[in-house]
Amino acid sequence: MAEQMSDDDERQQSPPSDLDFTSNKARTCIVTGSVSGHTEFQSPYPDQVLGNVLENVLHFLTSRRDRNTASLVCKSWYRVEALTRSELFIGNCYAVSPARATARFTRVRALHLKGKPRFADFNLMPPDWGAHFNPWVLAFAKACPWLEKVYLKRMSVTDDDLATLAESFLGFKELVLVCCDGFGTSGLAIFVSKCRQLKVLDLIDSELSDDETDWILCFPEGESHLESLIFDCVEFPINFEALERLVARSPSLKKLRLNQYVSIGQLYRLMVQAPQLTHLGTGSFSPSEIAGQGDQEPDYVTAFAACKSLICLSGFREIIPDYLPAIYPICANLTSLNFSYANITAEQLKPIISNCHKLQVFWVLDSICDEGLQAVAATCKELRELRVFPVDAREDSDGPVSEVGFLAISEGCRKLQSILYFCQRMTNAAVIAMSRNCPDLVVFRLCIMGRHRPDHVTGEPMDDGFGAIVMNCKKLTRLAVSGLLTDKAFDYIGRYGKLVRTLSVAFAGDSDMALKYVLEGCPQLQKLEIRDSPFGDAALCSGLHHYYNMRFLWMSSCRLTHQGCQQIAHAMPRLVVEVIRSADEEEMDVCVQTLYMYRSLEGPRNDAPKFVTIL
Amino acid sequence: MSSENGKRFLETDAGGLNFEATELTLGLPGEPRVTSDGGAKLGSKRGFSETVDLKLGDNSQEVKLGHSLQEAAKSPVSKTQVVGWPPVRGFAKRGKKSCKYVKVAVDGAPYLRKVDLEIYNSYQQLLTSLEDMFSCFTIRNYLNEKKTDQVNGIEYMPTYEDKDGDWMLVGDVPWQMFVESCKRLRLMKSSEAVGLGLTTGPKYSSTN
């Protein structure tokens, strides 16, 4: 706003050139009914009025896509949008520099940053590749002191970064770290001790080291503002007594997810202090080691019954199934249930799931077998998201779930929007059936764990199944394929997958044509991750028209050469083309182990480790 | 950070998902990789990310090397292990790793311990571990039919409660069956065990 006012001050008779368009419009609007073309100002600074109006209106625009579009209208809209953007999302931390981001967006309250590509989760990327939070926190500390929320995914965060966060931003409120690493309990300790307004501390699937600092004890005394505390990924014990006192003085606490070092007896004590919880991660859900035989067990059922607002349940990290009945009182209210750490059978699941009529999100292990999935299908008519994880994640293990459970789910849960399903065997017929039964599918991720495994009944490739999914599920934006797949499957994807934004491919396809179909056919493609598939330089070149529209392309163990990647790098200057070697490779090997390329405004990054070559 | 990774790798199960990409492969560059389905689809170049499981004990079922028959059968010859496949997050240990905790009670001891049966491969390993845990007692090494030194003059028999609620002598059934059916362990004073008729010899020695 200050900028616009100074522009107005400078203006004498004619408006500044860059405000021409808007000023004219303002005059026209204000002077309605005026006969001549002469202007008559009813207010001294119509541009200022317009600016005010714009600012107020743009405050309501929350979707970042809408904001990006609005910022392209004209310069003043660009400026006002930049001033009013309070939540900044950066899908690839290397696409733009911290300096550039803070220069444009000066009033950001929330920063959402993503770093490493997803395949890094599966050890396909050497450690210390990058995605450091450090330059970001330093830049924002200087430029955006009103920052109060940080959400990071797959970034490296150090203890120093946590300290900087806590010290630079008064009134910092929310920190969410998903799949992050590089820090430890000492960093956490400093962070929690200095953030007196902290509402949210969520550590999700992150790896942190045990520096033997008691971080729970470091929360300041007195009433806390905590609304969410999630630490179920912490793989070492915490100070339970300190936690108990913390929960007791956190009247706003709604979300609490404990790690496996909290026993069920300790869980009871916490639940009694916090019956207002809406989200609970139950920790180990088994008694501690040091339990006398014949000790009086607390009344777990009553404790759960008292939590009348509980809608989301997880944990069960070392579950002793005998204790499962304790959760009966709240099953009917649950909208989300995560049993993905609970090795339970169908028989143990049934009494629980048969009461979960409102369930929308269900994560589970395949230990429940097809029979367990049938029970889910029979009751959970509101199910939107299902994830079935393998207990035994090997290719040749027995498969307790198959197309039978898959089909049952498709028939029972018609509102399904998102599925992730690990299995050892599948049929095209079942996948086709799901494509018809569940037309609302947005996310379809099927992982047939045996590589190149065909339809186990017909022996055919799985092309037709995945083809039916892209054909019939018109809202599909995310797809992961597996099993024996020929180029035909990719032809289908290119032809029908018009809304697909994320595609995951592994051990699939026959030739370059497969990749060409996808790159030429899918205009919305943003994220493409491919491993161990026979795609070479020619296929890579067929995407030149599209790479600037994508967030990234990952190809590992394919048939790319240095020369091919070099060609891409030459052709597209705003693309950063990284060739990542594994430890035993020579620098000038002809074949490329891993290609990771992404659009960027900044050119090659200056923090690349030795095993990364930027072409 | 790399040490964290190393720790993670050691913690994975014998299925060996998380082999380092640096492990050696057999075969020359460009040679097709052997896959269990006959190599119909040859995805890639020489295998940086695929390794051959070089556990010699598994390559030949005649060579026991202390592995049980059941374990050798689970890892067929020339099965290649692939880094990062299936794509289940490495440090999201689900179900399998820590699901088999059983309580261990020792007659006369004031506290219980818990052990994870999954981390052992044989009765011998389990009993050695129990002996370490309860080092002030000596556990009668029943399976090897040798009497241990009776330091305090008290011998203990390892017994367990199975899925049906029956108390059995540890060592009566094959190891895997024991792991699946054991609900809790009790180290019973030998004098008491005699009265329960548990003195018959085990059918399976610790070398199975």
Task: Please specify the SSE layout and strand pairing.
The complex is a heterodimer of chains A (615) and B (208).
Chain A: H1 2-10, H2 20-30, H3 46-59, H4 64-70, H5 75-84, E1 87-90, H6 98-104, E2 110-114, H7 134-143, E3 149-153, H8 159-168, E4 174-178, E5 183-184, H9 185-194, E6 200-204, E7 208-209, E8 228-230, H10 240-248, E9 255-258, H11 264-273, E10 279-282, H12 300-306, E11 312-314, H13 328-331, E12 336-339, H14 346-353, E13 361-365, H15 369-379, E14 385-389, H16 403-412, E15 418-423, H17 428-437, E16 443-448, H18 463-472, E17 478-480, H19 487-496, E18 502-506, H20 512-521, E19 527-531, H21 537-541, E20 552-556, H22 562-571, E21 575-580, E22 594-599, E23 612-614
Parallel strand pairs in A: 1-2, 2-3, 3-4, 4-6, 5-7, 6-8, 8-9, 9-10, 10-11, 11-12, 12-13, 13-14, 14-15, 15-16, 16-17, 17-18, 18-19, 19-20
Antiparallel strand pairs in A: 20-22, 21-22, 21-23
Helix pairs in contact in A: 3-5, 6-7, 7-8, 8-9, 10-11, 14-15, 15-16, 16-17, 17-18, 18-19, 19-20
Chain B: H1 2-11, E1 50-52, H2 56-59, H3 69-74, E2 80-82, E3 101-106, E4 113-116, H4 123-133, E5 138-139, E6 155-161, E7 167-169, H5 175-181, E8 184-189, H6 190-195
Parallel strand pairs in B: 3-8, 5-6
Antiparallel strand pairs in B: 1-2, 3-4, 6-7, 6-8
Describe this structure in words.
The complex is a heterodimer of chains A (615) and B (208). Chain A is built from 22 helices and 23 strands. Chain A has a 21-stranded mixed beta sheet, with helices on one face. A two-stranded parallel sheet of chain A has the order 5-7. In chain A, strand 3, helix 8 and strand 4 form a beta-alpha-beta unit. The N terminus of chain A is likely disordered. Chain A has 615 residues and is of the alpha/beta class. The longest helix of chain A has 14 residues. In chain B, the strands form 2 sheets. In chain B, strands 3, 4, 5, 6, 7 and 8 form a 6-stranded mixed beta sheet that branches. Chain B has a two-stranded antiparallel sheet with strand order 1-2. The longest helix of chain B has 11 residues. Chain B is elongated and about 50 Å long. Chain B has 6 helices and 8 strands; from the N terminus they run H-E-H-H-E-E-E-H-E-E-E-H-E-H. Chain B has a domain of 96 residues: Ubiquitin-like (UB roll). By secondary structure, chain B is an alpha/beta fold. Helix content of chain B is 21%, strand content 16%. The chains are: A alpha/beta (615), B alpha/beta (208). Chains A and B meet through loops of A and helix 1 of B.
